[in-house]
Amino acid sequence: MAGGVSLTKGGNVSLTKEAPNLTAVTVGLGWQARSTTGADFDLDASALMTGPQGKVLSDQHFVFFNNLKSPDGTVEHLGDELVGGSGVGADQDEEEVKVDLANMSPDVQKIVFPVSIYDADSRQQNFGQVTGAYIRIINQADGRELARYDLTEDASTETAMVFGELYRHGGEWKFRAIGQGYASGLRGIALDYGVNV
User: Fold this and answer.
1) Please, are residues 167 and 174 in contact by the beta-carbon 8 Å criterion?
2) Dihedral angle at the C-alpha atoms of 60, 65, 66, 72, nearest 10 degrees?
3) Average pLDDT for residues 114-129, to the nearest whole number?
């Protein structure tokens, strides 16, 4: 099965054009952790549903391992330690988030996908010890990969990183590759997007 559009940092693609009848996607996130500290490496994906001001609609619109579903159910985190892959030869996604675009509230302008290292500071871990990280967007209807972004930059001090975002633009849903690291961890990202942490 042909892969989707491969993006570089900052690039974007119209998912609506790639799949004209698109109603729902699965966001797959993957990585390989080389633990050099002896401690387990636990990376967690999350999703922030933001409005026109770029802030979360509410604290409940921050979907992560302690809040696996948005209030309206349109964004659902499938949980930690996912056994990945749907179909033969599929990537072994570490974590997946299901997004129902068709029923998404018009208030939601953007869904941002950070990945953070759990307990990074005490374990002395950072994204410089992570290789092969990627985010990909899969059409739920047929399992086809629409877009993919392989993160390549060296983030040797950051403990969290925004991989990419889904956003509305002129009646279309688009995906942008971001790859922005945060030394302040998931807390720093959440604060940036208006979550009360």
Assistant:
1) yes
2) 30
3) 91
